[in-house]
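Supplementary Methods. Inverse-folding protocol.

Structures were first reduced to a discrete structure-token string of length 146. This string, shown here, constituted the complete conditioning input.
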């Protein structure tokens, strides 16, 4: 069976990495054991790095580096491509800040975009007629991984 390739939104990655006893912490073990492959690009990694620096997390620069080292070595890096140049339809998210995840998922042709954000989840189209990328919650991914 092929390993799932997924785009994880920033909040999913944060929950998996920062809350070791949290409900999403098994995702970190799953990507580290190559049960699925997170796909990211410069924009999504930049956003993750920026959010890790928020004062509410109280992380030192060293802490941020440690957190990123538990994620980045397991990531497939996808170089940015203009969706208009490909034969991939452009799907618009109602929250412009979430568009980077949707664009990456479409461009990289991943299996799933994983998010807890309703602005993205509402775009899931099981028939894939309007949206060629499946969008699911992190709990759906955990269930699929067994």
């Amino acid at each position: 069976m092929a390993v799932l390739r997924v785009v994880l939104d920033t909040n999913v990655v944060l929950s998996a990495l920062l809350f070791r006893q949290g409900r999403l912490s098994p995702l970190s073990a799953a990507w580290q054991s190559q049960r699925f492959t997170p796909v990211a690009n410069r924009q999504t990694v930049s956003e993750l790095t920026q959010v890790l620096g928020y004062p509410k997390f109280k992380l030192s620069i060293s802490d941020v580096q440690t957190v990123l080292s538990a994620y980045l070595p397991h990531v497939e890096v996808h170089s940015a491509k203009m969706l208009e140049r490909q034969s991939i339809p452009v799907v618009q998210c109602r929250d412009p800040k979430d568009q980077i995840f949707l664009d990456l998922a479409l461009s990289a042709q991943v299996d799933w975009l994983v998010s807890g954000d309703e602005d993205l989840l509402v775009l899931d189209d099981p028939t894939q007629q309007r949206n060629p990328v499946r969008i699911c919650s992190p709990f759906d991914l955990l269930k699929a991984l067994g």
